[in-house]
Design goal:
182 residues, mainly alpha, 3-stranded antiparallel beta sheet, two-stranded antiparallel ribbon, 5 strands, 49% helix
Length: 182
């Protein structure tokens, strides 16, 4: 992954893909903490990754809502960016790099309570996330996050993980570790 500030070293003929930019993922996670979190914080890596999964894979979220008998507005229709199968379900190997980037920019603090990592937006992070929330390019993403929070926001990371494994055994659970989820 590259930072936008390092693109000058990329040859002009080389395509730049948003999925390869740390800022692209950082913006989504800032919004995730702000929109899906409780008081601008998410407790646990598992919950972070599973909420992010349903934001990034709207077709799975739609199936989950139908299975649960929950009405939800679906704004995004296509997969946002890929994840892989990990020990605890869907995961993005870039989380550690992106979270370190956010912490280094003083947008997020990371603390530990017991065995759980707590991710909280700083006042600066809230300000940036709120700016993104109001920006039209993020409109569909914010709407998807609101729907995910409404359905899953009160559930623990473990409960969401179990829902994923129970409902999407073939698509997620049966995959080998590190295999992309499509």
């Amino acid at each position: 992954m590259k930072s936008i500030s390092n693109l000058a070293t990329t040859p002009a003929a080389h395509p730049v893909i948003a999925d390869d930019l740390v800022e692209y993922h950082a913006a989504r996670l800032l919004l995730l903490f702000h929109v899906c979190g409780k008081n601008d914080r998410i407790e646990g890596l598992t919950k972070l990754a599973k909420l992010d999964f349903f934001v990034r894979y709207p077709e799975f979220f739609e199936q989950l809502c139908h299975q649960l008998g929950v009405a939800a507005a679906f704004s995004i229709k296509t997969r946002e960016s890929g994840m892989v199968r990990f020990h605890y379900g869907p995961w993005d190997k870039r989380y550690y790099q992106v979270l370190a980037y956010l912490e280094g920019r003083e947008l997020v603090t990371v603390s530990k309570e017991g065995s759980a990592f707590i991710f909280s937006l700083t006042p600066k992070g809230v300000q940036v996330a709120e700016k993104f929330r109001k920006a039209s390019p993020f409109g569909e993403l914010v709407a998807q996050m609101k729907a995910v929070k409404k359905v899953l926001g009160s559930k623990s990371g473990s409960k969401i993980k179990n829902l994923i494994y129970n409902m999407f055994e073939k698509e997620v659970g049966a995959k080998a570790l590190g295999e992309p989820i499509s």
